[in-house]
Each structure stands twice: as C-alpha cells, then as structure tokens.
Amino acid sequence: MALYKVKRVFGEDLGANNPVFAQVLGICSTLAVTNVLKNTVVMCAGLIFVTALSNLTVSFLRNIMPGRIRMMVETLIIASYVIIVDIVLRAYLPDISRQLGPYVGLIITNCIIMGRAEAFALKNPPGLSFLDGIASGIGYSYVLMSIAVLRELFGSGSIWGYKVLGASWTNWSIMVMAPGAFFMLAIFIWIVKGSTNRGEK
Amino acid sequence: MSKEGMIRKRIFTVLFMFLVTLVFISITTVIYTFSKDTIRFNEALRLKKAVLYAAGVLVSEQPREIEQEYKKRIEEVLESDGTVRYYIVRGDDRSSVESYVIVTQGPGLWGDITVAIGYDETGSRIAGIEIIDQNETPGLGGRIGEEWFKQQFRGKSSPLSTVAEGEAAGEKEFQAITGASYSSNSIKDIVNSASDKVSSLLRKE
Lengths: 201, 205
Description:
The complex is a heterodimer.
Chain A: H1 3-14, H2 27-33, H3 37-61, H4 70-92, H5 94-100, H6 111-121, H7 126-156, E1 158-159, E2 162-163, H8 173-176, H9 178-196
Antiparallel strand pairs in A: 1-2
Chain B: H1 3-54, H2 63-73, E1 74-78, E2 84-90, E3 97-107, E4 112-120, E5 126-133, H3 147-151, E6 161-163, E7 173-175, H4 181-204
Parallel strand pairs in B: 6-7
Antiparallel strand pairs in B: 1-2, 2-3, 3-4, 4-5
Helix pairs in contact in B: 1-2
C-alpha cells in the first residue's frame, strides 16, 4: 500500500472532505449524542469500529457482489456490526449501554458508513478501505467531541461528568437540548469554512 | 445476454444474498450466545442493587457482595404467575421487617421509567428510590438518575409535590430538575401512585 495513498485518505477525511462539516453526513447523531462527552466518545468508538469493518468487508466482496443488490448487502453488513457493538456494550459496559439506549442501534442509519461503503470501499482494495473507514470515523469523532466538550461545559458546567465551572455558573439548558447542537454545529462549520475559504474567490 | 445467462445471473444473485445473510447471522448468533449469560447476569444484578439501594441498605459495587447482601436481606413475595409483587427487606436479625420495596413503571418523556421504591415498615415513609430504567434526555431529564435527586426522597412521604431546583423542600416536597419539568413530574406521579399501591398491598397482608 503506497504511503501517499494513505496520507491522502487521512488528509481528505480529516480535512477537506470531512464527513461532518464538508459532506454534512451523520448529522442526526451529531445532534443527538453530543450533550454529554462520555456518550459521545462511546458513540464515536462504535462508529469507527463499524465504518472500518464494514468498509473492509464491502471491499472484499466488491468484485463478486452483484451490483443490483449491493445496497442490501451493505446494509446487512453494517447492521451485523452494529448488533455486535450493541451486544458487547450490553455485556461489558452495561451502564454506558443503558445511557446510549436507542442510539447504538441508530449507528446503522448513520449515513457516513453507507456513504463510505458506496463511495470508497466499492472502488478500492480492502486495506485502504479499512483505513478510510478509520479516517472517516476519526474525522467524525473530532468534530463531535469538540461540540460535546463545549455543550457539556456550557450546559452542565462539567466535562466528562466532573464539575469544572463553580457553583456560580448558571447552566445554559439550551446547550443540552437539540437546538444547542444546531447552534454549535453551525458555528463549527462557520469557523472551519471561514478559515479554509480565505484566499479563495 | 442469452435467456439462460439471465437466469443463471439471477440465481447467483439470490444465492449470494442468502449466503451473505447466513454468514452474518451465524456470526452475530455466536457472539450473542457467548454473551447472553453475562447480559442476563448484569440485568439481574442491577435489579438486586436497585432494590437494596431503594431499601436504604448500603450497597457496594462488588457483584459478589451485592449477591450476598441480597440473599441475606431480601425476601421476594411472588404473584401467582411467578413475577415479583414486592420485596420484603429483613433487618440484620433476618426476622424483623425493616422495609418494603416495590418496582413500578410510569410514562416519562421519551419512554417508560422503571423505578424501585422502598418504604419503611409501616409503608408510609419512603426509604429511598432508585431509577432502574429510563430514556429521558441525557443532561436534562436524565439527571433523575443523579445521586442528589434520588437521595432527597429518603424519609419523605406521599403525596409529594415539587419545588424548584435549589430551593428547600419540605417533608412532602422534592426538588424538580431545572429544564426537565416533565421528567420531574413523571417521577412525582410514579412515586405517588406507588405509595397508594403499597398501602393497599400492606393492608391486604
């Protein structure tokens, strides 16, 4: 595997072609799980795992898979990995599994996974597809985590469940609710686009 | 393409889908079979811990100690269908009744909330509550699971009403969570209706 290809994959997924702020995929979960950092981290770990492995599997099957049923197969593969994540969480991290509740199952509907399978894994060899899955997952994760840190800080005065802002801090309830996520995501996209587009035009 | 070729292609498509499904279902089934017991054990342990917590018994985090304490202190009163109607909590001498615990459910904002509620031996004062299951908004209604919120029910008696978060609460009051009035009211309703249930249960005994 050529190093420059790996570099390009990571560069694209973390920067110019980032799944969240460039492709605007996976927004439902960005809004839903980012009010508490701990849930966000587990969600991101689950997504990296599922994206990487589904990319790998789809890439292995890409040459024998009949084109007309490829989306059925991809959905089946993705769903299976998500069920595995769900079972493992319920068995070994029951507290976090309960907190995430239905969100774990909803990893299946995260467009990033299907998007990468369709756009990348169908055309590239398994190793590179696996790395692309990891890179997309990380690209998604760092955006979510930055939003989650700010939302939990302003909304609950804490980070990772530990109080960091003193008793005089008034929690901004809106940060914990869905609208807070819209604001934070929009500001995030604004800052990123604002700084990368400078010099164009 | 010849007609025969078309048919062969279709059969391959169906076969391919069937095989992929078979492989993945087998993998998930194997993983599920291996972790099934752990998952069940976790759920049972959580319920036991909740019952002890609601009864006001100090609970350790160690599974073995929870099991021991539960075995020593708790007696399950069963319905005719084998489900638990309520739990009797024995004192250290194992014969006196210290408190009663019931597990009950009520609607929350996003789904049902399951709560274990403990009462003293007369059934009039609350010994404690523990949230077993809830789908409230994390960070808002989800805070019903926080220690300060659950602890404030100890020693209170129904019918309860709410005061604002941070305000002093009387004997029949508890602090609601700011930004989560709906979830707080759900807990109020669940606890109040459970109290009625407990007094009628104890009257029957």
